[in-house]
Write a structure and sequence with these properties.
The complex is a heterodimer of chains A (294) and B (164). With 294 residues, chain A is mainly alpha-helical. Chain A starts with 9 loop residues before the first strand and ends with a helix. The longest helix of chain B is centred in the middle third of the chain and has 133 residues. By secondary structure, chain B is mainly α. The chains are: A mainly alpha (294), B mainly alpha (164). Chains A and B meet through strand 2, helix 1, helix 2, helix 3 and helix 7 of A and helix 1 and helix 2 of B. Chain B: InterPro entries: ATP_synth_b/b'su_bac/chlpt, ATP_synth_F0_bsu_bac, ATP_synthase_B_chain. Chain B: Pfam families: ATP-synt_B.
Chain lengths: 294, 164
């Protein structure tokens, strides 16, 4: 097995949109979750059963928690919080299914013909010593012009494994997108709850000290995006790497504890993302304590 | 920075696609799942609260009824006791009255009896007197062999009776 690339692998291209394996997975999860949600909410009964029961058992604690923290704003925050949780949770757990990262195809990429030594061609494996090889080839080329052309035209191929499915949160596009969505929605809601001037006064103040603090806060908004996205990405990507490494060592039984671990990590990361978003939302849309004195 | 972004495969279009996916999911779940389920949760919460309140009310009413029942029972027992004692009293009175009346009646009867006996006694005495005087007259006439005058007769008779 090859090493897992940090970037999600591209599978195809539709118009201007490159289709990556994570994009496919995200569509699958959106469809699955939407269908489940629709079925759960289609026929709600006073006495819950089946899917309704499942959703209620997840949503009720979330709803209680949201109300406890956000009070009157809970009804606005709740759908966003809950969607973050369900989406990330399902994405994390989906990534543990067999086939994720293991079923795919080998892509042979043509690398622009570089001068490469004969031995390198024979093995067909560009490696760490390619640079060295290149220099030796150049020395070779200096000798005869004939060999230069033949080597330059020789097709050099690089085989990379492209899995059809990749754990969704092991793609920075996904986690960064979620983090951006989280922070942007937080700010929009703060604007809505505080009004324009209330919102502005969070950042800009005539008091020089407060102005500085506001500036720091503005910077921290940027770091929020980074911390939210990289935490989730790091955890899930690391999990993928651990699982593939252990599977390479011993594919039977040995990875099981790590799978359990990843199941827990999936919940924890989803909960962390959701909780932080909820806390940020609550804090940012809270009326400024100082502002009320003026 | 550029290389970092490239290594991680971050592309604005993919970023946008993921955000869109999230927003679509948010919209769908909000409309089809959260809304009805939250509504149901609230409805259930209300219903449970109402049921608990009703249960409490029922409990209270039950207690009130129990208390009233006890009170009524006590009152009824008291009343019954009163009736019984009243009955006993009136019964005793009746017996007493009857006894008095009976004794009075007996007294009256006894008196009447005495009177009747006295009358009889008198009557008997008179008869005996009359018969006796007649017998005495007859006897005396037989003894004296003469017919006594009315005056002698009366004197003799009364003298004889006195002596008897």
């Amino acid at each position: 097995m090859e090493h897992i690339s940090l970037a999600a692998e591209k599978i195809g291209q539709v118009g201007f949109l490159p289709i990556t394996n994570t994009l496919i997975v995200s569509w699958i999860i959106v469809i699955v979750l939407a269908v489940l949600g629709y079925m759960a909410g289609k026929n709600v009964h006073m006495v819950p059963s089946g899917l309704q029961n499942l959703f209620e058992s997840i949503l009720e604690p979330l709803w209680d928690m949201t109300r406890e923290m956000a009070h009157a704003r809970a009804r606005t925050f709740f759908p966003i919080i809950a969607t973050f949780f369900l989406y990330i949770l399902l994405a994390n757990w989906f990534g543990l299914f067999p086939g994720f990262g293991t079923i795919g195809f080998w892509e042979t990429k043509k690398v622009e013909p570089k001068a490469i030594s004969q031995e390198q061609l024979a093995t067909g494996q560009p490696g760490a010593e390619s640079k060295e090889a290149g220099t030796s080839a150049q020395q070779n080329l200096a000798g005869s012009a004939v060999t230069q052309t033949s080597i330059a035209e020789a097709p050099h191929t690089e085989r990379t494994f492209v899995p059809f499915f990749r754990s969704l949160n092991a793609d920075l596009n996904m986690t960064l997108g979620l983090a951006l969505a989280s922070v942007v929605i937080t700010h929009i809601l703060a604007l809505r709850f505080l009004g324009f001037w209330g919102y502005i006064s969070k950042w800009i103040s005539l008091n020089p000290i407060m102005l500085f603090v506001g500036l720091l806060e503005l910077v921290s908004e940027g770091t929020k995006v980074l911390s939210l996205s990289l935490r989730l990405f790091g955890n899930i990507f690391a999990g993928e790497v651990v699982l593939s490494t252990i599977s390479n060592l011993l594919a039977f039984i040995a990875p099981l504890p790590f799978y359990f671990l990843e199941i827990i990590v999936g919940v924890v990361q989803a909960a962390v993302f959701m909780l932080l978003t909820l806390v940020f939302m609550t804090l940012l849309s809270e009326k400024h304590v100082g502002a009320e004195e003026h | 920075m550029e290389t970092v972004i490239k290594t991680f495969g971050v592309q604005p279009i993919l970023l946008a696609a993921q955000v869109v996916n999230f927003l679509v999911l948010l919209f769908l779940l909000k409309k089809f799942a959260y809304k009805p389920i939250l509504k149901m949760l609230d409805a259930r919460r209300e219903k449970i609260a109402l049921s608990l309140k009703q249960a409490e009310q029922i409990e209270n009413r039950l207690q009130a009824i129990e208390a009233e029942k006890d009170q009524r029972l006590k009152a009824a027992a008291k009343e019954a006791q009163a009736i019984i004692s009243e009955a006993t009293k009136s019964g005793a009175q009746l017996i007493e009255e009857a006894r008095q009346k009976a004794s009075e009646d007996i007294k009256v009867l006894l008196k009447k009896n005495e009177e009747a006996m006295a009358r009889e006694h008198d009557l008997l005495q008179k008869q005996i007197k009359a018969e006796l005087s007649e017998m005495i007259v007859i006897g005396l006439t037989k003894v004296a062999k003469k017919v006594l005058t009315e005056k002698d007769k009366n004197m003799l008779v009364s003298e004889t009776i006195r002596s008897i």
